[in-house]
Specification:
- By secondary structure, the chain is an alpha+beta fold.
- Among the domains are: 61 residues, RNA polymerase II/Efflux pump adaptor protein, barrel-sandwich hybrid domain (OB fold (Dihydrolipoamide Acetyltransferase, E2P)), CATH 2.40.50.100; 34 residues, no CATH class.
- It is built from five helices and seven strands.
- The strands form two sheets. Strands 4-3-1-6 form a four-stranded antiparallel sheet, with no helix packed on it. The chain has a three-stranded antiparallel sheet with strand order 2-5-7, with no helix packed on it.
- A hairpin with a 4-residue loop joins strand 3 and strand 4.
- The longest helix is centred in the middle third of the chain and has 26 residues.
- The protein starts with 7 loop residues before the first strand and ends with a helix.
């Protein structure tokens, strides 16, 4: 971590217990007030267990996981996934055709229901089941605190001055054609403002 960063929050694990990792491979991520840092494996091996859990506050040098050099990756975990993928590969072509035929009537029956429910006057809101609260990362918390502090301490002053522009507008309409002929540009208001302020 950086010199001014003393601790961080363990955001998430990129590997699972039982996974094989190589040296310098990222196994987790730590969020600090300034950056998100990858935690690299110091050596090649198999992750036995995680000592810390997600959301814990850790300091530099804290042990996060136990990696065994001698342990072999669990073949029982890898082999079934390969066998199931090989077994599933031949059957799908014949099985897919009936599924597609069966799905087409379902799609047709769903469309009328959706058209009945949807009305142009009512806004479509996401269902409550899909909403979830997620904790704000430390970096975003720090940014929010800094923005609020600057809003509270910044001296903001807006001044309005009312000016009667009747004579100036009359002067502009009287001399605008002559000004364009003489100088090639239209007579604006900024030159008058500069003259008034400079006096």
């Amino acid at each position: 971590m950086g010199e001014s960063v003393t601790d961080g929050t363990l955001a998430n694990f990129l590997k699972k217990p039982g996974d094989r990792v190589e040296a310098d491979e990222a196994i987790a991520q730590i969020e600090t007030d300034k950056v998100t840092i990858d935690v690299s494996s110091p050596e090649a091996g198999v992750i036995e267990k995680f000592i810390a859990s997600e959301g814990d506050t850790v300091t530099p040098g804290t042990k996060v996981a136990v990696i065994s050099k001698s342990a072999a990756p669990s073949e029982a975990h890898v082999a079934p996934s390969e066998e199931t993928s090989q077994k599933e590969t031949p059957p799908p072509p014949p099985a897919e055709k009936p599924k597609v035929e069966a799905k087409s009537p379902k799609v047709e029956s769903v469309k009328p229901q959706a058209s009945k429910l949807a009305s142009p006057s009512e806004p479509q809101l996401p269902p409550k089941e899909r909403e979830r609260r997620v904790s704000m990362p430390r970096l975003r918390k720090r940014i929010a605190n800094r923005l609020k502090d600057s809003q509270n301490t910044f001296a903001l002053l807006t001044t309005f001055n009312e000016v009667d522009m009747t004579n100036l507008m009359k002067l502009r309409t009287d001399y605008k054609d002559e000004f364009v002929k003489k100088h090639g540009v239209k007579l604006g208001l900024m030159s008058c403002f500069v003259k008034v302020v400079a006096i």
